[in-house]
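quick one before i forget lol
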Amino acid sequence: MAKAIVSAGKAGIALAVSDPCFELWLIPHFADHNAHIADYRAARVLLAKHLPAYDKKLDYTALHQGLDAAIARAKALGPDNPATAMWRLVEAALNR
């Protein structure tokens, strides 16, 4: 993955990568979390505390209220696991 990130950067392409998985982006909508997450399964266990019925389908209404907090929490994460740049995509979509 690191090689792809470097290649994208050289090409002027901004990525919205989440490490270890996309579900990490959902956790900051509800709580702080900055400890290592081993894999998707571990992220899913953490997420289930807040979205027990999550099954890869998103209910925007469950996430909307925590969006600004999620962006702030995601920006505060470091570059290594856990890390997510989904906030960049969301801010671009919202023209922020």
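fyi The chain has a mean pLDDT of 92.
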